[in-house]
Each structure stands twice: as structure tokens, then as C-alpha cells.
Specification:
This protein has 842 residues and is of the alpha/beta class. It contains 29 helices and 28 strands.
């Protein structure tokens, strides 16, 4: 998280203005805490608290004027109380804005309204989520202020109320792609209206007809949610955006055009590094950045502002010294003129990059530092940070509950307090200065930010520090070249393309670091995702720091710890198998725990496995394959195109060689089938249809397709009645075991399968993958014919479908089968041969 602050600080320099001034820190923290707590305070209590704080502050100041003893502490407490009162007043006024006007009442009535709204932030497209066997349609989210509102049959009322507008831009058929190969294809197939809504600039005024609803949780910074149905057309624009926003929009559009010819990762990442434009970031790349604690590079932050400001003023490490570097002193620009130019740069930075919490924090902190520079007073940057926090919380109390704002301030505070001391300590032990600075910055920011990140992701990254160190050296050149491309695009697009091409190299390096780090088996560990877990992680971090301080005196022990950490992250399969017992030696099939969906792996040699279905989540199936050491996939079989069977395909394709993809011939739902085709085409993987009678082999593994039957030559459509009945069904043979994988076959197809030419081979199989997650829709005749020794059911914990059905479990047990399920037993591995079958859980 260290780059969120924007720079590295070296060891403390002897020529400073004296001890650090901490007088502004307690008032800033008090104002922050007050603003964070105010939404939960009963409405009537706020005025009394404010009056009480002001009265007490007045008494303390009066006592100081009388030269009472200990006057300075009293003045400090009085200043703190004044900040608390100011923060409470600001929070109360902002809270009143959420309750004022007709919009909150209309939301409580779930009324249909016609509203004129003003866009306040860049629209964004939600991810496609899997719900059951369908993908939830993508939605455009727009933060806006309602300026005029009219209920059906009523009169229009002028107001100014913050709301969240949800625009359904899907095709309306309930089938939407999941796991698309690229962000561009996701945008294109989100719906015909999506590009129009996503192109809206802040300050644009729209007229929408929507259904109002209250916000889901109390304390949110909106008064209502407006859901717009039928957003497949262009929005009705009432007023164009302001001139400044149009200019910023042209700059951002120019940067996107300049990066169009770059490789996919660079094309997605460079606009994000420069102006926070993450519209091209794929879910796969975003997950890699989160896993490696590099997500701060995807959201524009103080890093961008500080890097550009350093070109003008010089390195931040000289902020407390009389020397100056950078372009301004070299051009002979005076201090005050330099500060003025810096202020203009800060304003332009906020306009172009949008006023997100980290951007506001960076600009405010920079403005305070520029003020100190203009007056010739070299002040500590810690008071500047405290001043920025105080001013921002008073201006927008909602920032007090923003995790992004919290992480940004913590990272900056770590670099201003811990990093210089740690850097000096490392240099005293012989570490080169630049490496010591970088290592101290990364470790300091990670130590303070990791507990908050654990609350957000319920995971702790073990590769965050090394990945940030490796990426840090590429952030500055990518940012500088990206800003140069941004500035030159409107006037000289060929030059901008050249600059973007140069900036694409460091951007590719950063993306490569993220992908490589995330692909390591031990990149992160699961952690409790609440504040108790955060406190526990803080204690663990403190313990590691105390132990590490002692270990620095013993290089050999440091080396041993480093080797152990590398082994924990890399997790060589032989060592992992010895320690964890997973995967068990000689495994033949593994049913992955992917929640409410199906994903299985059939062993096909060392490091190779045939994958049957991929589940609903790319991350879960990727984790399963990594734990098995699968790097080669000769074949991916997608039994049918429901999202809970195919949406995880990007996770299978991530970093693995795939020989071919085989699917059913019934391409329904159509959008899911199209998504699979796009992913296969993007990676040049052959795509073919399976049909009964097909037999294949991969190493010692062999299988036969027993369903669906091929369509008659005169038929234009498959014979199956629906996607479930068109499921590809496999009879697998491995080391003398026979495994029957039924996909999601329903009773009609199961009955026809029991009467098919392959029926004789289905009698008394060793392992049965129960159809349709163990639902109640099973054919008793097929269960009696198959009579498995082991029945495996893949389903999600506490799913809303009642899977597996008790009657299905009882019927299987009545035939002598042992029944195991992933929601209770986790991932399941089938081990042994035909004569000695056993199963192991992860």
C-alpha cells in the first residue's frame, strides 16, 4: 500500500527545523472520530453535544486568558473541543441534507418518480455476478444529486439531494456473460445502452424515470437509490457538463485513444495509473492486483500528484531542507510563483482525476505544503497531513467512513514516521541507501495498512512487500510518461501514442509483477474479515517487528526466515503434500469446492488434468488447480452453458496451457455460449462439440461421452429439451475405477440415458457425480442401475435451493453408496484403484 502516499522518504536528515510538531494531530484525529460516529448518534443529541463542547472550550480559553496555571494544556484541549464541535456541526448539516426535501419520503414509499439529476462522479459498470445458474445483468452505477423531482401525477419540486442511480443496461433476456475475456467485450455485450451511460461526465444533467428506494444501510452518504429500468437507449441529457469537465473528458478520452494500440495489460493499466480510469481493467487483472496488495496503483492517489509535483519542486525528501531541485529552480522561478503553479497543478489534478478521497487528500496535503513553501517556512509534513485530514473531514464528513481515505492517510503517516527511522536502521546495518529507503517504505506502509486491508478482503498477502518493491521502480516512469501522453493527446496524437508506447513498458512490468505474484500458491492466507481480525493482525505484526528487530543482529537467522517465507509462498508440491497431506498421493479425481456450482479435475499425468466444468468463480477454481499443481489442461469439458458451470473458465485459463475446450451442442444461454467462444478465440484454443459415442484418452486416463446423443442429420436443433438435459455426460476410467459424471441431467434425460446403447456400461460404477447438485429431480431407475460405491455432490453452503435434497441422499444411501458433499466436506479427492477405493478431503 505504500505507493498510495506517493513517495519514499529517506533517513531523517540532520538539517531539519527541529522536533516534529504534533500539536495538530490530536485535533485532526478527534474531528475524524467525531465525523465517523455522528451518523450513529440520535438526531436530537447533536446540538446538545456541540453546545457543550463550545461551552467547555470557552471556559478553558477564558481560564488561559487569566493566566491560570497549566494554560497551554488547557488551550490544547480547547482547540480539540472546538474541532470536535466543528466536525459534529458539519456532520449534522450533511446528515440533514440527506433528510431534507421530498426524495427521502418518496424513497420510503418506493414511488416511481421523474427526476432531473446532476452527475457528480464518473459512472461505472458493475461486475457480472452469478446467481444460481444465471448471470446477474450488469448495472451502471451513477452518483448524482437530484435537482428536481416529480412524483407521477404531482408537481415538480426543486431540491438538492445526493442519490445513487442504478441503470439496468442489460439485454433484458436474463442471460448475461460471466468471465469475459476482456473489459472491452464485457462493455460491448453489457447492453446497447451501456456505452452511452458510461460516457456521461460529472456535472451533466439528466432526466430519468425511476423507482425510488431507501439506501440499504444507515449511515450511507445517499438519501435514496433510483433504479432506472430499460436503460438500453441513450440517456436524456438536459444540460451539458461544465467546460472544465468537458476539457477533462477530452484529456481522458485522448489518453484512452493514445493507449489503444498497446498490449492488453498496458492498455488497461496506464489510464488507471495516470487518471484513475479503470474501465479497461478486467476482473482477472483486478484480482491479481488485490492479491499482491498493488490495488492502490489502479486507483489514482497521492502517488500520481507527488510524482508530478516532484518534477516542479524537486524530490519530497528535500521538503524539510533549504535546497531545492526540480524544474522550477532550474528555470529561475521564485518560491511564491512556484507555489502558485503548484496550486494550479493541484486544481487541475483534482478536476482531471476526479475528487476521490485519496485524490482530495493528496491535493489538500500538497496545498498546505505549498502554502508553507510560499511563506518561506519549511514545516514538517506530518502537520501538513494532519491539516489536510482536518480540513477534508470538515469539508466532507463522509470521508471519515471511507476505507480508501483511511488507507491513504495510514500509508502517508507510515512514510512520514516509521519509514525514515527504519531506513536509517537498515543503512546502519550496511543496506544500500536506495534499497533501504524502498524496503523501509514498503514495510512501514504494509505494517499500518494490512489490518485495514484484511477487513476489506478477509485475506492477508504474503507477497505484498516484494511485489510493491519490484513495482515501485516502474510506477514513476509510467506515471510521468502517461501524464505526458495525457497532455499532448489533444494537440499531437502521434506524439501521445509514442509516449504511451514508452509508458506501456513499465505498465506491463507492473501488471506482470501482479500476475506472477498472484499466481504463487501461497500468495495470501485467509484471515477474519472483521475488526477483531484486524486487531489480531496488528498484534501479529507487532510481534513480527519485535522479533525481526532482534533477528537483524543475526544474518544467518534472517536467511533461514527468508527461505522459510519463500517456501511458504512458492509451496513446492512435494513439500506441500508432506505438510498438508493435500493433494493425496495417487489421486484420480478431485471435486473442487467452488460453492454452488460444479468443477472437477481428472488426473492425466504429472502436472496435467482434464477439467470438467469450472464453477461460478474464477478465483475458486484457480485456487483448486493451483493446490493440485495443475499447469497443463489437455481438455476442458463444459457440460452445459449455465453460469454455475462455465463462469469460472478464466480461472482455468489463467497461466495454464489448455489443449482444447469441448462443450455441448445446445448453446443456451446464448450469451454464456458467446462468452466461452470469445475466451477460446482470444487464446486460440480449439472449441468443439461433444456427442455420445466419442472416446478419448489422456495418459492413463480414458473417457467416453455417453450423452447427449448426436442430432439427427435432418434436424436443425439438438434433441435435448433444455440446457440441463443437454449436459455432456462422461463415463471415465482411471486405474481400474469407473466414474460417471452426470452434469445437470434432469429425470427425462436420465431415463433416456438408462435406455441408451451405453446403458450396459453404466451398471455399478465406482463413483457417481450426482446430477444437478443433488436436487430432488432424479430418476430412481438410473440410481438403481448405477448403484455407486461413492456418490459426490457439489453444492454451496446454505444455498437457497435446498441442495442436496434429503430424498436424493436417502435414495443413494439405500443403494449402499457413501454420500459426501462439498458444502460440508470441502474439496474431495478420489484415491485408489478398482479394488481399493477411498476418498480424502481438503
Amino acid at each position: 500500500m505504500h505507493a498510495a502516499s506517493g513517495h519514499r522518504l529517506g533517513a531523517a536528515h540532520p538539517r531539519q527545523d527541529g522536533p516534529v510538531d504534533l500539536r495538530l494531530v490530536p485535533p485532526a484525529l478527534a474531528a475524524w472520530a467525531t465525523a465517523a460516529l455522528m451518523p450513529d448518534v440520535p438526531t436530537g443529541w447533536a446540538p446538545g453535544g456541540v453546545v457543550g463542547a463550545l461551552a467547555l472550550a470557552g471556559l478553558l480559553l477564558r481560564a488561559q486568558r487569566r493566566r491560570a496555571p497549566h494554560g497551554r494544556p488547557r488551550a490544547t484541549v480547547a482547540a480539540l473541543l472546538l474541532c470536535v464541535a466543528a466536525s459534529a456541526t458539519s456532520a449534522a448539516l450533511h446528515g440533514a441534507d440527506l433528510r431534507r426535501g421530498p426524495v427521502p419520503a418518496l424513497a420510503r414509499q418506493y414511488a416511481t418518480v421523474t427526476a432531473e439529476v446532476e452527475v457528480t462522479a464518473d459512472p461505472r459498470l458493475t461486475r457480472t455476478r452469478v446467481r444460481g445458474n444465471r448471470a446477474v445483468p450488469p448495472t451502471v452505477l451513477i452518483e448524482a444529486d437530484v435537482r428536481r423531482v416529480r412524483e407521477a401525477g404531482g408537481t415538480a419540486v426543486t431540491t438538492r439531494t445526493p442519490v445513487l442511480v442504478l441503470v439496468d443496461v442489460g439485454r433484458g433476456d436474463g442471460t448475461h456473460p460471466a468471465g469475459d475475456a476482456s473489459a472491452d467485450s464485457r462493455l460491448t455485450r453489457a447492453g446497447p445502452g451501456a456505452p452511452h451511460w458510461l460516457a456521461l461526465l460529472p456535472t451533466t444533467r439528466l432526466r430519468v424515470t425511476a423507482r425510488a428506494a431507501p439506501p440499504r444501510a444507515s449511515g450511507e452518504r445517499i438519501a435514496a437509490v433510483l433504479r432506472v429500468r430499460g436503460g438500453r437507449g441513450a440517456p436524456e441529457v438536459v444540460a451539458r457538463p461544465s467546460g472544465a469537465q468537458r476539457f477533462a473528458g477530452r484529456l481522458r478520452a485522448g489518453l484512452r485513444e493514445a493507449t489503444d494500440g498497446l498490449p492488453e495489460d498496458a492498455r488497461a493499466l496506464l489510464p488507471g495509473l495516470v487518471v484513475g480510469d479503470t474501465s479497461r481493467i478486467t476482473p482477472e487483472l483486478e484480482e491479481a492486483f488485490k492479491e499482491t496488495d498493488l490495488a492502490h496503483t489502479l486507483a489514482v492517489s497521492g502517488a500520481n500528484f507527488t510524482i508530478v509535483l516532484a518534477l516542479l519542486l524537486g524530490p519530497p525528501g528535500l521538503a524539510q531542507r533549504s535546497e531545492r531541485r526540480g524544474l522550477a529552480p532550474r528555470l529561475g522561478i521564485s518560491l511564491r510563483t512556484t507555489a502558485l503553479l503548484g496550486g494550479v497543478l493541484a486544481l487541475g489534478f483534482v478536476v482531471v482525476c476526479r475528487p476521490d478521497p485519496s485524490v482530495l487528500r493528496a491535493a489538500a496535503c500538497g496545498a498546505v505544503a505549498l502554502l508553507a513553501l510560499a511563506t518561506g517556512r519549511r514545516r514538517s509534513l506530518l502537520p501538513a497531513l494532519a491539516t489536510a485530514v482536518l480540513l477534508l473531514v470538515l469539508y466532507d464528513p463522509g470521508l471519515a467512513r471511507s476505507y480508501g481515505f483511511l488507507l491513504s492517510v495510514l500509508a502517508t503517516g507510515a512514510l512520514l514516521t516509521l519509514a525514515p527511522r527504519w531506513s536509517a536502521a537498515l543503512q546502519r546495518r550496511g543496506v544500500p541507501p536506495r534499497l533501504a529507503e524502498a524496503l523501509a517504505a514498503a514495510c512501514a506502509a504494509q505494517a499500518l495498512c494490512a489490518p485495514v486491508v484484511a477487513v476489506l478482503s478477509a485475506r492477508v498477502s504474503l507477497v505484498g512487500v516484494p511485489c510493491n518493491l519490484l513495482a515501485e521502480f516502474a510506477v514513476a516512469p509510467a506515471t510521468v510518461l502517461g501524464f505526458a501522453a495525457l497532455a499532448t493527446a489533444p494537440v499531437a496524437m502521434p506524439v501521445a501514442k509514442g509516449l504511451a508506447w514508452c509508458g506501456g513498458w513499465p505498465a506491463e512490468w507492473i501488471a506482470g509483477i501482479a500476475r506472477t505474484g498472484a499466481a504463487l500458491p501461497g500468495a495470501g492466507v485467509d484471515w477474519p474479515g472483521d475488526w477483531t481480525g484486524a486487531a489480531l493482525l496488528a498484534l501479529v505484526t507487532l510481534g513480527v517487528l519485535l522479533v525481526g528487530r532482534r533477528l537483524l543482529r543475526h544474518p544467518w537467522w534472517c536467511g533461514v526466515c527468508a527461505v522459510l517465507l519463500v517456501l511458504a509462498v512458492v509451496r513446492p508440491p512435494p513439500l506441500a503434500r508432506v505438510i498438508t497431506g493435500w493433494p493425496p498421493p495417487g489421486w484420480r479425481m478431485v471435486m473442487c469446492d467452488v460453492g454452488q456450482g460444479d468443477a472437477m479435475v481428472l488426473a492425466a499425468g504429472e502436472g496435467a488434468g482434464v477439467v470438467v466444468d469450472t464453477g461460478p468463480d474464477p478465483a475458486l477454481v484457480d485456487h483448486c488447480l493451483r493446490s493440485l499443481g495443475i499447469t497443463r489442461v489437455p481438455l476442458v469439458v463444459l457440460t452445459h452453458f449455465h453460469a454455475d458451470h462455465v463462469a469460472g473458465l478464466p480461472g482455468v485459463l489463467r497461466g495454464r496451457s489448455v489443449g482444447a475446450i469441448e462443450t455441448t451442442a445446445l448453446e443456451e444461454p446464448a450469451d454464456q455460449a458467446e462468452s466461452v467462444r470469445e475466451q477460446a478465440a482470444a487464446r486460440r484454443i480449439p472449441l468443439r462439440h461433444a456427442a455420445a459415442g466419442e472416446q478419448r484418452r489422456a495418459g492413463s486416463l480414458s473417457w467416453q461421452v455417453v450423452w447427449p446423443p448426436p442430432s439427427p442429420p435432418t434436424s436443425k436443433a439438438p434433441t435435448a429439451e433444455g440446457p440441463n438435459d443437454a449436459s455432456v455426460t462422461l463415463l471415465v476410467r482411471s486405474a481400474g475405477l469407473r466414474l460417471l459424471l452426470l452434469g445437470d441431467l434432469e429425470p427425462p434425460a436420465q431415463q433416456r440415458l438408462a435406455r441408451s446403447p451405453a446403458a450396459g456400461a453404466l451398471e455399478r460404477v465406482d463413483v457417481l457425480k450426482v446430477a444437478h447438485h443433488g436436487s430432488a429431480h432424479q430418476d430412481p431407475g438410473l440410481i438403481r442401475k448405477v448403484a455407486p460405491r461413492l456418490a459426490l455432490i457439489s453444492c454451496g453452503a446454505d444455498n437457497g435451493y435446498g441442495h442436496p435434497a434429503p430424498g436424493t441422499v436417502d435414495a443413494l444411501r439405500a443403494q449402499g453408496a457413501m454420500v459426501l458433499r462439498t458444502d460440508r466436506d470441502g474439496a474431495l479427492a478420489v484415491v485408489g484403484t478398482g479394488g481399493a477405493l477411498r476418498v480424502a478431503g481438503d
